[in-house]
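Quick check before the chapter quiz. The format below is the same one you will see on the exam, so make sure you can read both the input and the output lines.
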Amino acid sequence: MNPPPPRKIIHIDMDAFYASVEQRDDPSLRGKPVAVAWRGARSVVCAASYEARVFGVRSAMPAVRAERLCPQLVFVPPDFARYKAVSRQIREIFARHTGLVEPLSLDEAYLDVTVTLSGLPSATATAEAIRAAIRAQTQLTASAGVAPNKFLAKIASDWNKPDGLFVIRPRQVEAFLTPLPVGRLPGVGKVMEAKLAALGVATVGDLRTLALAVLEQRFGRWGRRLHELARGIDEHPVQPERPTLQISAEDTFEHDLRLDELETHIRRLAEKTWAGYLKERERVARTVVLKLKTSDFHTLTRSLTPATRPMSAGEVADIACALRDRVDRADDDRYRLVGVGLSGFVDRDSYQAQSDLFDKLPT
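Here is the expected output.
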């Protein structure tokens, strides 16, 4: 049997999405360094315009630091309802070309265009058509990467940003990857970079010289993944329906609080999380998660999967408060953020079948 043809994957990434929407809708912001964020010591940048990025301003950066880097920075409060509306427009454009769309966030998605609905002759032509439609219908720009798999397409979409297109054809994969810093591979952060540097690995080409057995001995299952990535192998398909992994709500305080001052906030966030969970019709959550961020920006998480799944916001709050009591930190430590979440999702029918089975077991 002949092997199936290579996949044709597009990664679409909107350019500075939230900030670009703000600049589109308010002409006075165009050409200015813009941060989508509330101004103040407790705020974090949601997005930065390209004019702001010149000064080193980036998303997830504390707003205070961003303003130090760029004193003329214009702060615009986020309007997520507006961003979601634009995102829906963009996804309608995707749907004209393929039903295989995997959204990663409001501003980026993978598309499998191995077979298209639009009948365009190539993945490159499809990417160009999508970018042109986005520009015409939203007055915004998008960058696109075209490649035989997801991880290469994502690297490619960043290659000619903003408002760019980059194509990696199957025959070009090895030559494209060889000189790249190993840190460009997905999942290779600073810690892994340092571990690989200790083995003499700086580029993907260096990584390719290490035998699979060496990588597996050193890094376990992750070693096999590194071996595949170095060769441009990624068999993960585009998944149009991504199952719910976690529903959560969190809050950053105006002033840092002690652990014993968090209960009211935990219970309020449990109510918000539960309200979001009630919209989930097909899956059941079994695990409660508590997230804390200390005043010096260290993140702590605690979780518990009780014998029976939580059945109310009150139960979620009680478990989250119990998790708070498990935090082994100094009494005078302060916390700037708390979050409450539900995870451990399973299909409702599967969960019910398991419950019925245990109910019927002899005691």
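If your answer matched, good. The longest strand covers residues 246-257.
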